[in-house]
């Protein structure tokens, strides 16, 4: 039996995902006046991310077609699994030990 | 009657005030109305204007407390929903969790839903053939040793397991004695398998009675055919095609089967959808499942509230529950978390580490009696010098 070619991007539930170029990414951040950490996230291990070859740091543009007003655009910033854990570790480091004050 | 090109130009003029989707529909309907009611040019213009007004009215104002409104809009119909889980939704025999328990399941992002179900569509060339559908059912429906045997016993004297096979059932599933033996040899600890007539005798070597019992259970539920997790598959005719509904879900494996239409086949297990199709598909599935559950109960909630909920749950790349192990537990405000659940834990921990609450959210400002940073509170007044 020949192996069937499966492309999950064909499934109805998966909207169109495109990787933004560096220029487009900067334009986007400027347009909304934000830094990249304010964007919604998507994991590097996400099945769609793996197929389109996006990497940690890329911004993905997603065009959804399920809104009552037609198409809607959404953006997601790609992070790795470890990036998340890295974040939590940073917070622990921020607990600074205070020197006991002089009597 | 207005000129079609006039309608086109008027629509173009207002192109930036409405979305593409709406403009498309508007154009179609204007053409239709033009034919039917013989519209004048002025009438075309005023129709477009009315449409723009209606659209702008439906937009949300900046600063609107959409989260609170969405929560209330979903909570209120929640009080009208049934608490019983069983209903025969659609296909006879397959139970699906409905009503409030289902909503709770979705919002809690349960990793193992009560009633996972797959809806499998077939490829274009075979979807109208009942035989082809049945072929695929045979491939996905799980068949265990138990399901094709007349009886199964533990023989304590010989420390073996005796299975009496049911040839009729075997034939129905297209399994031969050799097939079964082959699959059984894959079981761990199987030492020998002998067959006489329709009786299989399995020995597991030198084992204790308890181990023999465990072995018995493993043999009983050993899967011979079908994909993992799928217990039953039923065929239903919908419109002109045959659709397969399964009890139990394994989307990844189902997609691999030739004949299965991967563009439309789907599951109701949200976490599985995230694993197989990605976070965006999972978000869409959350919206769909909640909408369907409400619809089935006869409730009508604006889809934007549901979309907001789904977006919030999938904001960080994976599905997070709304409860204290998810979104609510990750708020930066101590007061907000303390007022949600496990009060003392949060307050104690915060006190120990000297945490600071910047009082920038809704809950904490309500607690201390300050205006909330939404709507009116979104704006600060400054004196002009």
TrEMBL record, chain A:
GO cellular component: cytoplasm; DNA-directed RNA polymerase complex
Gene Ontology MF terms: DNA binding; DNA-directed RNA polymerase activity
Enzyme class: transferase
GO biological process: transcription by RNA polymerase II; transcription elongation by RNA polymerase I; tRNA transcription by RNA polymerase III
Localization per record: Cytoplasm
EC number(s) given by UniProt: 2.7.7.6
Catalytic activity: RNA(n) + a ribonucleoside 5'-triphosphate = RNA(n+1) + diphosphate
RNA polymerase subunit H/Rpb5 C-terminal domain ranges (all copies): 6-78
Lineage: superkingdom: Archaea
HAMAP family the record matches: RNApol_Rpo5_RPB5
NCBIfam families reported for this sequence: PRK09570.1
Function: DNA-dependent RNA polymerase (RNAP) catalyzes the transcription of DNA into RNA using the four ribonucleoside triphosphates as substrates.
Identification of the protein by name: DNA-directed RNA polymerase subunit Rpo5
Provenance organism: Candidatus Methanofastidiosum methylothiophilum
Taxonomy of the source species: Archaea, Methanobacteriati, Methanobacteriota, Stenosarchaea group, Candidatus Methanofastidiosia
TrEMBL record, chain B:
Keywords, comma-separated and alphabetical: Cytoplasm, DNA-binding, DNA-directed RNA polymerase, Nucleotidyltransferase, Transcription, Transferase
GO biological process terms, semicolon-separated: DNA-templated transcription
Top-level taxon: Archaea
EC top class named in words: transferase
InterPro entries according to UniProt: DNA-dir_RpoC_beta_prime, RNA_pol_Rpb1_5, RPO1C
GO cellular component: cytoplasm; DNA-directed RNA polymerase complex
Location of the RNA polymerase Rpb1 domain: 49-334
A GO molecular-function annotation: DNA-directed RNA polymerase activity
Family membership noted in the UniProt record: Belongs to the RNA polymerase beta' chain family.
Role noted for this protein: DNA-dependent RNA polymerase (RNAP) catalyzes the transcription of DNA into RNA using the four ribonucleoside triphosphates as substrates. Forms part of the jaw domain.
Name of the protein: DNA-directed RNA polymerase subunit Rpo1C
Species assigned in the record: Candidatus Methanofastidiosum methylothiophilum
